[in-house]
Amino acid sequence: MKRGYYGQIEFATLTESAKKQIKNLVYGAANAAKVDEHGSWDFGCEFDGRSRGSALNWDVYAYGKDYFTKKSLCVIQVRQYLKRRTNYYPEIKKSYFLLGRNEDKSIFAHSVESRVIHSAIKKNVDVIKAVQKWIFGCDYTQIIRHGDLALIPIKKVSGEILQKQTILIEQSHTLNADELKLNGSLYAKNPKLEHLQKVHPTVEGRGWYKVVVAKRSKFWDFAAPTLD
Hints:
Helices cover 15% and strands 38% of the residues. The chain has 228 residues and is α+β, with helices and mostly antiparallel strands. It has two domains: 11-137, no CATH class; 145-213, no CATH class. Helix 2 crosses helix 3. The protein is elongated and about 65 Å long.
């Protein structure tokens, strides 16, 4: 594996197996049925005789396996080049995503911060792990993950006790617990998380957990993340 000037992995230096796995994720996400209102990614280019037009392409910045599922992951940059007038500078817009597969085999695209990626490359540390740590705000290997939600084990909890024991989170997950507390963040005792669309299998924990919603970076509308 060899990196280019901007930190991207030079695709030709990857093994054929890695190339295939990455392409499956990228083009699977590009054509995914579950995307938000901005639509899917339409890679390619179109220019007129005066060099006006646009191009949408991608580069890979990291690839590996998920700690829990052992399924393939990759981090990509989706980049748009747009030239409206012949004698004007082009507009270049970039967004970055972590790509992988949900338990139901659908592909997700989770928008992430470019600074996290480039910092990890500069420090020569695992980019995938750095991105996952940024997404959930902790060591990814220590959590119980449920799509865009995570249960982080915690020993001591203080805060306001909520009267309800079941709540809806992100309009997609049901959280049930023996006890819920609120203190800046949401905490649950003996939690049980269920996904309304059954994309992720139900998970449970014993003891107290902090409930964390995954962070997402801002992204350009030509590069939309998939919905959970």
